[in-house]
């Protein structure tokens, strides 16, 4: 009896955990309780003292019933609500160019959110791989109370996502409110607007582009939601879904011939430009100033911001930029960027893999089938229209769109990327020589570990500097050459979550540290308030400095950055000798 009780209890707890982590519906928990109660009843009436094969059959039946429960109560697919109350308070009606919208009031009545507003026609059917078109006007009032689907992308089982929150982010919360699966769709060109509640006029506007390696991501993610900074700093925040992976960055000669602009390969960027045009034409209806737009992004979103800074067709759509943890301003950008010939060659290989002789045949393939190509088609390219030359060349030729730049990197960017590729004394030299070739000896002299932990730390620093820090160093120099006010930071604040890993700064920048979370302390919240004040000032005057804030100096020689940590203040750039090696590797012209 004791053995039966322990076994059943452990199994039931494990099954309960699977149902919760997989976000199954509430009825699944009820059915599991009934199945478990049935096993107890069966034990006392039949199994106790019965034949061994009846016991085995009962356990098999119990496990089979769990599989059935798992399938029958699988979480449904539904759009993410823009509110977290049973009866949301509605905003007034706002009249836009294409129709009327009504949002919801959130953040204890301090913020209005208008979610899922179309800014372009669905890029489906014949519109797949074409420049974004105007959305159809609508009649009546659009209830903007749910976020639109995330753009088509590879997805994981819900249990995988839950485990990532536990193991990676350390912020998993048990709840029945999220027992569903957010949808993915090609019909995802929608945007969201967060504004301070009530009347406003000529408020500064922050337009945010989400990251995700140009392969994944969604506009409703809590870390960069606009609610925190909109309430704290009296500004409007807009973000959008845009085409990702093969749908956003596939290039083909046939598509270039189809296009009235001769473009192919930068559809995701064209979507972002379309969203910026929507902001210019509509944001005044929310109280925003269409002539005071700050464009920001993180990781691949920052790659897009970096590209739009030198796109001739994005000129005049924003005034200043915030770039977090990526740029494409080095001579040879380390990720998310490729030259046009490479893009076309990759497109031809894709056609061969699908045995397609034309773009029309590719358009006939389902989005679900094509999403597997996200890993091969996620690079901005020089298409001759969106980008006429590399961003490095544009800056060197004095062609850019922004008035001021606020940008930087995190001190441990490499954290999530080297989890399965740590270094030790045995493999450190091989890793260095594999990447640096003829420059490897210089790197090995600069970073010469004597222990396994040193080897791992040096490799983590090298990896982060190559892919993230160095491109910001390049941007800082190019901005200074062109007389652009530029402010660079290094975020290094530790906490119980991501800390200074890649993307760890986002909830600080946008004011979304959970109020009740024990993972963060008063120092984290104070740093977030400081950073948001910098952003507010920057969005109003091109200068982040202001009363009561530590002075953020420009660094014309790129030798100093602002440290965002327990202490906020200027500090030395630590990688100058290493950057010199990368300059020579890439052929940077002094």
SS summary, helix count: 19
Strand content: 15-25%
Q: What gap, in angstroms, lies between the N and C termini? A: 80 Å
At CATH level 3, the topology of the largest domain is: Rossmann fold
How many domains in all?
3
The radius of gyration is 26 Å
The structural class is alpha/beta
CATH superfamily of the largest domain: Alpha/Beta hydrolase fold, catalytic domain
Overall pLDDT, averaged? Answer: 96
CATH architecture of the largest domain: 3-Layer(aba) Sandwich
Considering DSSP H and I runs of 4 or more, what fraction of the residues is helical? Answer: 25-40%
Uncertain segments are none
The level-1 CATH class of the largest domain: Alpha Beta
Main sheet properties: 13 strands, mixed
What this model shows, in words?
The model has no long low-confidence stretch (mean pLDDT 96). The chain has 590 residues and is of the alpha/beta class. Strands 1, 2, 3, 4, 7, 8, 9, 10, 11, 14, 15, 16 and 17 form a 13-stranded mixed beta sheet that branches. A two-stranded parallel sheet has the order 5-6. A hairpin with a 4-residue loop joins β2 and β3. It folds into three domains: 2-72, no CATH class; 91-165 and 191-402, Rossmann fold (3-Layer(aba) Sandwich); 407-586, Alpha/Beta hydrolase fold, catalytic domain (Rossmann fold). The protein is 39% helix and 15% strand. The N and C termini lie far apart (80 Å). It is built from 19 helices and 17 strands. The chain is globular and about 85 Å long.
